[in-house]
From TrEMBL:
The lineage of its organism: Bacteria, Pseudomonadati, Pseudomonadota, Alphaproteobacteria, Hyphomicrobiales. Belongs to the cytidylate kinase family. Type 1 subfamily. ATP binds at residues 7-15. SUPFAM superfamilies: P-loop containing nucleoside triphosphate hydrolases. This is Cytidylate kinase. It comes from Devosia salina. CDD domains: CMPK.
Length: 217
């Protein structure tokens, strides 16, 4: 079974994808980490003329070692860098095979990102599109950063998240939109446990309908 989980920054898609993976005994890939690793690799050259070529080279050279420094990869600044390299078509195509191979491994997988249901796994068995309002997302991200001892300017963080979402939604080479057959799950009013229960219910219902020869979207 392939489960595709997409959504904007700090919507909780990674948390839900990890919970679904654990529940169904599937491997999980946070595809944002790939873009973050590329962004981090070219951080020093951001907005210089060689930036694009350097990002393409970094994406082509990416391997598992680049995904180890989670503290640097998951910072808010690296998220912005990731969204800058994510608009480059050759970066996206260089990362495609890694994601596709992960998704199509025997038994299936859970992947979360922006274009999983639309570009990476248009054939996914279940697609979830996670939403939460911008203020709730900002507050969740602020608390996550504060738990790590990072000082947070909530006003700046709110604008950074909105700016990143806009860049992702307008990305001409991206695929960040709700697929026609994706299930919308708004978690603004749901805690982590309730959101995971709702996601599991959607997956179970979709798979049961499919087994009975029906579609659920
Ligand atoms: N339903 C929820 N209610 C409250 N907090 C949540 C909920 N879902 C996730 N969180 C918390 O919000 C923060 C961001 O969640 P998460 O990393 O899963 O988001 P994301 O969409 O994967 O973010 P990004 O796209 O930036 O990687 C985490 O600290 C997580 O524990
Ligand atoms: N499938 C994806 C995943 C991510 N991106 C870009 O990377 C940025 C960081 O992703 P997070 O999920 O870790 O927030 C994101 O803002 C996108 O620009 C992508 O394009 N496609």
């Amino acid at each position: 079974m392939i489960i595709a989980v997409d959504g904007p920054a700090a919507s909780g898609k990674g948390t839900l994808a990890a919970g679904l993976a654990q529940h169904y005994g599937l491997p999980h890939l946070d595809t944002g980490l790939l873009y973050r690793a590329v962004g981090l690799a070219v951080a020093d050259g951001v907005d210089t003329p060689g930036f694009e070529a350097a990002a393409i080279a970094a994406a082509r050279a990416l391997d598992a070692e680049h995904l180890e420094d989670l503290a640097s990869l998951t910072s808010a600044d690296t998220g912005v860098l990731a969204s800058k390299v994510a608009v480059i078509a050759e970066v996206r195509s260089a990362l495609f095979d890694f994601q596709r191979n992960f998704a199509t491994q025997p038994g299936g997988a859970v992947l979360d990102g922006r274009d999983i249901g639309t570009k990476i796994c248009p054939d996914a068995d279940v697609k979830l599109f996670i939403q939460a309002d911008s203020k709730a997302r900002m507050e969740r991200r602020a608390r996550q950063l504060e738990a790590r001892g990072v000082e947070v300017d909530r006003y700046a963080l709110f604008h950074q998240i909105e700016e990143r979402d806009a860049r992702d939604m307008l990305n001409p080479n991206g695929g960040f939109y709700q697929a026609a057959d994706a299930h919308l799950l708004d978690t603004t009013q749901l805690g982590i446990e309730a959101a995971l229960r709702a996601a599991i219910a959607i997956v179970d219902r979709t798979m049961a309908l499919k087994a009975g020869g029906q579609t659920s979207s």
